[in-house]
Amino acid sequence: MQRIRSAQLYEEAQQHIVGGVNSPSRSFKAVGGGAPVFMKKGQGARFWDVDDNQYIDYLAAFGPIITGHAHPKITEAIVRAAHDGTLYGTATEHEIRLAEQLKAAIPSMDKVRFVNSGTEAVMTTIRVARAFTGRNKIIKFAGCYHGHADLVLVAAGSGPSTLGIPDSAGIPPSIASEVITVPFNELDGLRLALERWGDQVAAVMVEPIVGNFGMVMPKPGFLEALCKMTREAGALVIYDEVISAFRFHYGSSQTFSAFPDQDAIRPDLTALGKIIGGGLPIGAYGGRADLMAMIAPLGPAYQAGTMAGNPASVLAGLACLEVLREPGVYTRMEAMATRLCEGLQASADKHGIPLTINRIVGAFSTHFCDHPVTNYEEAQGSDGEQFAHFFRLMLDRGIYLAPSKYEAWFLTTAHTDADIEETVAAADASFQEMAAGR
Ligand code: PMP
């Protein structure tokens, strides 16, 4: 497969855009470097690059594109927004409708505020927690990524860990020292941290279902104990559901059937993003009414945004959620993901390639290792070079995966059985090539 135009554009892009990309996770640094692919068009589960190569898309733009590219209902919503003017700097009725939908699906959200990205949503939940508790420290879990704000770019997963920079430069030690990092899926670290600093901790922040060092479920009882221990310390529980909300079912982790006792895992605050904007920029945070009342104009904690709740993002988000409410949507994505994972595993086994797959409904991660992946350390222990090799072989066969061993494969409502068959065949040929050492 030739990607001449992508290579040319990459050369050009590097003269103008730092690193040639507007987000480091789009570069191919973690998979051996070189020119990333420049795309020009997407339709359904496929997209096309500037050299007219076609790919089946499992990146789904790192999550938001759950209905596939250019879904007619979302396109219609965006066109409507464009015709009516894209920004007023005033309140609109659309914002109320999207807030209502989120509240109906996520019972712990009494009040909602829209922002423009997951990063902003997370940042502000921390501000609310600090304002409310009068404490400064945050506990987070190793490998969880919560956006690029100073406060949480400590032992983050996803991009930073892939690039080998767990802490970013430019973050004052005084800020990093307010963040305590403990291992995911293990209560001892959290218990010790709370014993030592509990009276200074404003919040425990967690991806309740992890999407940033593979797809990782919390072990049974983990979230329940986390919530209990956190509350006993007088701190708040913040769920970062930027990836997980509406990904596995219509709702958040709190309402996911894998967790039997909703009340026991109820967070105080939740951060959202990605899917709720239907592919346009958005973030949202919400939670208990008394906590949300800390935010201006009601309370003393400030947060604002020129673009926040803009009609295009909100209408696209409403259209996306409408598609996701159609019966059978998640069951279909799950059935396809299951078949795909079975095919991948059987083929890897056949060729003697160690592969651990973590699947949750229609999303899964592939780890080149022969041990389970339940925490960041185990994810780090998978073979990045093998992943990079697999990534390139799949790319040349027209299958687009996220360029990082930590990221998930996402099914969308647009993927078809034929896509799954084509992908399994491509993986089989790729594993065969890897086994032959080519
Ligand atoms: N939290 C989580 C769990 C995420 O996965 C991400 C993005 N991958 C973010 C926060 C940050 O979101 P954004 O990129 O929209 O700022």
Secondary-structure map:
Elements: H1 4-16, E1 39-43, E2 46-49, E3 54-57, H2 72-84, H3 93-105, E4 111-115, H4 118-133, E5 137-141, H5 158-162, H6 173-176, E6 179-182, H7 187-197, E7 201-206, H8 222-232, E8 236-240, E9 269-273, E10 283-287, H9 289-292, H10 311-324, H11 329-350, E11 356-360, E12 363-367, H12 376-380, H13 384-396, E13 399-400, E14 409-410, H14 417-435
Parallel strand pairs: 3-13, 5-6, 5-7, 7-8, 8-9
Antiparallel strand pairs: 1-2, 2-3, 4-10, 9-10, 11-12, 12-14
InterPro entries: 4pyrrol_synth_GluAld_NH2Trfase, Aminotrans_3, PyrdxlP-dep_Trfase, PyrdxlP-dep_Trfase_major, PyrdxlP-dep_Trfase_small
Pfam families: Aminotran_3
Family: Belongs to the class-III pyridoxal-phosphate-dependent aminotransferase family. HemL subfamily.
Describe this structure in words.
- The protein has helices at 4-16, 72-84, 93-105, 118-133, 158-162, 173-176, 187-197, 222-232, 289-292, 311-324, 329-350, 376-380, 384-396, 417-435; strands spanning 39-43, 46-49, 54-57, 111-115, 137-141, 179-182, 201-206, 236-240, 269-273, 283-287, 356-360, 363-367, 399-400, 409-410.
- The chain has a seven-stranded mixed β-sheet, sandwiched between helices.
- Mean pLDDT is 95; it is low at 159-166.
- The chain is built from 14 helices and 14 strands.
- 37% of the residues lie in helices and 14% in strands.
- The chain is α/β, with parallel strands linked by helices and 438 residues long.
- Residues 62, 117-119, 122, 145-147, 158, 207, 211-212, 240, 242-243, 273, 283 line the site of 4'-deoxy-4'-aminopyridoxal-5'-phosphate.
- It is an enzyme of class 5 (isomerase).
- Its EC number is 5.4.3.8.
- It catalyses: (S)-4-amino-5-oxopentanoate = 5-aminolevulinate.
- Its main location: cytoplasm.
